[in-house]
Amino acid sequence: MSLGPAGASLNPEQAENFEDMEKQFAVKAVQHMTTYWAILEKMRGSKLRLTKMDDEIYEHLKKDFPEFNPKETIDEDKMKSKEGKERWRNFMMTYEKTVEDYNFGTMLRSNPKFEYSEKETIFGLLDLIPTSGYSADQGTAAMRMQFYAIEIAR
């Protein structure tokens, strides 16, 4: 199966939904989750620096989402609503050129008081950045920038 001619850029809007790509995506997301949790087990989250821009990201989150309370459980329905998607998309696009993998799907704890579990984890794809083959109907996702912003605030 080919993605196109060698050297050609891949247009995510025209790419097919390849099962192997989905599996690779899931493996990377689980690796990220496992690594992050292992770090949290050894060090308080408040002592971590997730990016070189943590302070800027935190201030931006407070400005764009003044209602966000890092101690509360994330309202998944609100996050994946039309308005929620638009707000997060605008937030994330600020980091398109400055944060590597800013739009990569990442698992996010919905409740900061619990570790990752099936009930307490938000995953899927939020449809914030158009990616062929994925839709909001498959669940909610945390994109890497959402993960950074929320975990920095926590």
CATH topology name, in short, is: yst0336 like fold
- Quickly give the CATH architecture: Orthogonal Bundle
CATH superfamily: yst0336 like domain
- Largest beta-sheet characterization: 2 strands, antiparallel
Q: Helix fraction?
A: 40-55%
Q: At the first level of CATH, what is the class?
A: Mainly Alpha
Average pLDDT number: 77
Count up the helices: 5
Strands of the largest sheet, in order across it? 1-4
* Number of structural domains: 1
Taking the alpha carbons of the first and last residues, their distance comes to 43 Å
* Computed Rg: 16 Å
Annotation, overall tally of beta strands: 4
Give the topology string: H per helix, E per strand: HHHHEEEEH
Overall geometric form: globular
Pfam family, one: PBDC1
InterPro entries: PBDC1-like_dom_sf, PBDC1_metazoa/fungi, Polysacc_synth_dom
Protein name: Polysaccharide biosynthesis domain-containing protein
Domain Polysaccharide biosynthesis: 21-123
Describe this structure in words.
By secondary structure, the protein is mainly alpha-helical. It has a single domain, classed as yst0336 like fold (Orthogonal Bundle), CATH 1.10.3560.10. Helix content is 40%, strand content 5%. The strands form 2 sheets. The protein has a two-stranded antiparallel sheet with strand order 1-4. The chain has a two-stranded antiparallel ribbon with strand order 2-3. Helix 2 (54-64) packs across helix 5. The radius of gyration is 16 Å and the shape is globular. It starts with 18 loop residues before the first helix and ends with a helix. Residues 21-123 form the Polysaccharide biosynthesis domain.
